[in-house]
Automatic annotation (TrEMBL):
Protein topology in the membrane: Single-pass type I membrane protein
Name listed for the protein in its UniProt record: Receptor-like serine/threonine-protein kinase
Family named by the database record: Belongs to the protein kinase superfamily. Ser/Thr protein kinase family.
InterPro entries: Bulb-type_lectin_dom (IPR001480), Bulb-type_lectin_dom_sf (IPR036426), Kinase-like_dom_sf (IPR011009), Pan_app (IPR003609), Prot_kinase_dom (IPR000719), S-locus_recpt_kinase_C (IPR021820), S_locus_glycoprot_dom (IPR000858), Ser-Thr/Tyr_kinase_cat_dom (IPR001245)
Gene3D superfamilies referenced in this protein's UniProt entry, alphabetically: Bulb-type lectin domain, Hepatocyte Growth Factor, Phosphorylase Kinase, domain 1, Transferase(Phosphotransferase) domain 1
Superkingdom of origin organism: Eukaryota
GO molecular function: ATP binding; carbohydrate binding; protein serine/threonine kinase activity
Transmembrane segments: 434-452
Length: 813
């Protein structure tokens, strides 16, 4: 938080540069401005001058003056900063803008280019559009709009001038406080039919798809709207995309941020803030070539990748394990013999057109003939979809990066071998002779199997060992869970002395202990209120004992004696996560790589509980104090399964206590008592943001607003500076794109509506790969602090009186 205040102050001093000169919008030949002086566009909207985004480095740039000063839209010397305030911008008599230092050496830091022709009376002017132009007799000889930085303003042309060779594209900043060229670019590619690629270094992340007359094929949400109009121009001289404001009183800009997201912001005068209007990429399927060659991505499917009709995965085993990058191959190879034809694949994003050919005048019928005539042609489509379609676009070789849309997609005609075409009869025959018998067989085997499994179900309870032969898998695994005597445990824990007490959980106190053989243990002594029968308790324990995962705390055994019920776990020397992240001194021990490892560990453990374990357990009380850390700081979820064991059995007449902790509970859980795996996902999201920020969601304070941590993170994210959320130890050791990614995943997890939240499977995937992330919507409970704190004065809420379920509120330890 200190860091933010510091940054704020720094921005404040930085942009309240005193205006020495009266507001002029021009520099005439021989004239100059030095650091501290500025040029202002005639409508007062934009300002040109020197600024300092962070440290002592100074840059010449253009920013909004009337609104949002501090939002820089263009930087001249982004890669060669000035070290002091000695910078001077001068317009030479030759019509060249020169930025130099006024020291002895007169070093030129940056200069505009010139045509080399002699000029008279050049003038540099900052236009109302934010464009800095040098003109001679009304003719523009140089303009800043030809050198886009990270901000794409109305009127700029992103693309290529085929005459001059000028290639104008977006390059991200390195950080929000460092304008030097970052890794990401958004650039037109004019191989084949032009498209725009968003790249990280040389690697393509996102492809706009070809222009189809209305929009880019891969950007279905680029639609007519009340704010701006857009066009794509492709002629002999130039290829470019640009947009213009419909009403110039609305301010909008598009930015390629340091995390590689291309986002459009709109200024809201009422709140004096930028809001995110739309992002170019929408979901995983926008990740370039996610499904490989001839694969097709459909975000509504799980897994999203499938093969096009007539194709099968190239490597079946890779495909099944989620590695789709090798794509698909034809079931029947093309031979270029007679009889080959096309099948229609409806409503898709057209494949990569770098290896394509087009003709604007021929129609679709003719297009088909052209494609058939050339043996390396694999597909064709209309070039322009307006007015029923016109033109012809033909692909050669592999088809890459196809996705399906529910609306605004295009038809693609895919070349097929004769045997794969229209043989409907063939298909039906196959269904009759192969598929139906196979299905019937499977059903019969299934029924026999279930009957056998029931017979085998047996439960033996021994004196010292609980053996469980109940097996619903095909392997006959035996489970042996030690049953400890009360005396052995009392002995190990020094007779449950207060000195050995580690803490108090939702179900009773937890003690540290040491068995005679030297093994360290943690004992959870369940409170006696739990009226569960012994047999039932044992059954539950057997279930928990089956959960084995490196990110879950291992249950070593249990103890049942009279009223006493205890669970014996492995002991975690590094205690719980909350003792690290929320503690000023301890938190410095946890750098970003460790926090990242912890986040990933929790995600994997939770995924196992939700999906991979046979029990499908909802944790329901995921919080920092329930995450334990082993010697190597591996995260281990504890208290898992307890929710299921002690609260889930609603047919029981006993009163069950469902324990949750405010700050971590999802809105639908707190308000309606509805819980699902998505409530755990919510808690996980809170945890991620806490791990990054080092403050508790509950009780979070910020001098600028009344939001809780979720709200704060959301605000920073919307303002395009999520990295400000970082705790100091994170900031020193961070991989900025990794942190940004984690923040975005955290925000996706805490979205208001459970349906919007990703599953833990997607979370694990999003954290461990660099697939592109969807844009989060508003988080749940981010402003409702008053409501929550008001309620918490009563320690119990009856939110489900019909089945007498009560919830005890625990303040986080
Ligand atoms: C700023 O300082 C750095 C490091 O001392 C130096 O390499 C660089 O040339 C300086 N820049 C200017 C414009 O003087
Ligand atoms: C630096 O430039 C200024 C202005 O053009 C000039 O007066 C001064 O003599 C130059 N100094 C050197 C060392 O070239
Ligand atoms: C532009 O917007 C302003 C403010 O909303 C409005 O007053 C003005 O009439 C609009 N101009 C046009 C041409 O629509
Ligand atoms: C912006 O809001 C301020 C008050 O917050 C108001 O005075 C001003 O007229 C508004 N500007 C526009 C363009 O609506
Ligand atoms: C497009 O096809 C038409 C008709 O076949 C032909 O006259 C024209 O030259 C073609 N254009 C290009 C660029 O190949
Ligand atoms: C097929 O198209 C490719 C790519 O344009 C071209 O190189 C090749 O010569 C064509 N083949 C025939 C037979 O027209």
């Amino acid at each position: 938080m200190e860091g933010q205040i510091f940054l704020l102050c720094c921005c404040f001093t930085l942009f309240s540069v005193t205006m020495l000169c009266s507001a002029v919008d021009t520099i005439s030949a021989g004239g100059s401005i030095s650091d501290g002086e500025t040029v202002v566009s005639s409508d007062g909207c934009f300002e040109l001058g020197f600024f300092d985004p962070e440290n002592s480095k100074r840059y010449l740039g253009i920013w909004y003056k009337k609104i949002s000063p501090g939002t820089v839209v263009w930087v001249a010397n982004r890669n060669i900063p000035l070290n002091d305030t000695s910078g001077v911008l001068r317009l030479t008599n030759q019509g060249i803008l020169v930025l130099s230092t006024e020291t002895k050496a007169n070093i030129t830091i940056w200069s505009s280019s010139s045509s080399g022709e002699p000029v008279t009376n050049p003038v540099a002017r900052l236009l109302e559009t934010g464009n800095l132009v040098v003109s001679v007799g009304g003719k523009i000889v140089w303009q800043s709009f030809d050198y886009i930085g990270d901000t794409f303003l109305p009127g700029m042309k992103c693309g290529r001038n085929l005459v001059t060779g000028l290639d104008n594209y977006l390059t991200s900043w390195k950080r929000s406080s460092d304008p030097s060229s970052g890794e990401y670019t958004n650039k037109l590619d004019h191989n084949g039919y032009p498209q725009i690629f968003l790249r990280k270094g040389p690697v393509i992340r996102f492809r706009s798809g070809p222009w189809n007359g209305l929009r880019f094929s891969g950007m279905p949400n680029l639609k007519p709207n009340p704010i701006y109009t857009f066009e794509f121009v492709y002629n002999d001289q130039e290829i470019y995309y640009k947009y213009e404001l419909i009403n110039s009183s609305v301010v909008t800009r598009m930015v390629l941020n340091q995390f590689g997201s291309l986002q459009r912001f709109v200024w809201i005068n009422r709140t004096q803030d930028w809001i995110l209007y739309v992002s170019a990429e929408m979901d995983n399927c926008d990740h370039y070539s996610l499904c490989g060659a001839y694969g097709s991505c459909n975000i509504a499917n799980l897994p999203p990748c499938g093969c096009l009709r007539g194709f099968k995965p190239k490597f079946q085993s890779d495909w099944k394990s989620g590695d789709w990058s090798n794509g698909c191959v034809r079931k029947t190879e093309l031979t270029c013999k007679d009889g080959e034809g096309f099948i229609k694949i409806p409503s898709v994003k057209l494949p990569d057109t770098r290896n394509s050919w087009f003709n604007r005048t021929i129609d679709l019928k003719e297009c088909e003939k052209w494609c058939l005539r050339n043996c390396s042609c694999t597909a064709y489509s209309s070039l322009d979809i307006r007015g029923g379609g016109s033109g012809c676009l033909i692909w050669f070789n592999e088809l890459i990066d196809i996705r399906e849309y529910t609306e605004n997609g295009q038809d693609l005609y895919l070349r097929m071998a004769a045997s794969e075409l229209g043989s409907n009869g063939e298909m039906k025959r196959r269904v009759r002779t192969i598929i139906i018998p196979v299905l019937l067989g499977a059903v019969i085997i299934g029924v026999i199997y279930v009957l056998l499994a029931k017979k085998k179900k047996r439960l033996k309870l021994g004196e010292q060992i609980i053996e469980d032969k109940q097996s619903d898998g095909n392997n006959d695994e035996d489970l042996k869970l030690p049953l400890f005597s009360f005396n052995a445990i009392a002995d190990a824990t020094n007779n449950f002395s207060d000195k050995n007490k580690l803490g108090e959980g939702g179900y009773g106190p937890v003690y540290k202990g040491k068995f005679r053989d030297g093994q360290d243990i943690a004992v959870k002594r369940l409170s006696k209120e739990s009226k569960q029968g012994d047999g039932q308790f044992k059954n539950e324990v057997i279930l928990i004992a089956k959960l084995q995962h490196r990110n879950l705390v291992r249950l070593l055994g249990c103890c049942i004696q009279g009223e006493e019920k205890m669970l014996v776990y492995e002991y975690m020397p590094n205690k719980s996560l909350d003792s690290f992240i929320f503690d000023r001194a301890q938190s410095s021990l946890l750098d970003w790589p460790q926090r990242c490892k912890i986040i990933n560990g929790i995600a994997r453990g939770l995924l196992y509980l939700h999906q991979d374990s046979r029990l499908r357990i909802i944790h329901r009380d995921l919080k920092a104090s329930n995450i334990l850390l082993d010697e190597e700081m591996n995260a281990k979820i504890s208290d898992f399964g307890m929710a299921k064991c002690f609260g889930g059995d609603e047919t029981e007449a006993n009163t069950r206590r469902v324990v949750g902790t405010y700050g971590y509970m999802s809105p639908e859980y707190v308000i309606d008592g509805i819980f699902s795996v998505k409530s755990d996902v919510f808690s996980f999201g809170v945890l991620v943001l806490e791990i990054i920020n080092g403050k508790r969601n509950r009780g979070f304070n910020h001098p600028d607003h009344k939001l809780n941590l979720l709200g704060h993170a959301w605000k920073l994210f919307q303002e395009g500076r999520p990295e400000d959320l970082m705790d100091a130890p994170v900031r020193d050791s961070c991989d900025i794109s990794e942190v940004g990614r984690s923040i975005q995943v955290g925000l996706l997890c805490v979205q208001q509506s459970p349906e919007d939240r990703p599953s833990m499977a997607s979370v694990v995937l999003m954290l461990s790969s660099d697939i592109s992330l969807p844009q989060p919507k508003e988080p749940g409970f981010f402003t409702e602090r008053q409501l929550i704190e008001g309620d918490s004065s009563s320690s119990k809420i009856d939110f489900c009186s019909t089945n007498k379920m009560t919830m005890t509120l625990l303040t986080a330890r």
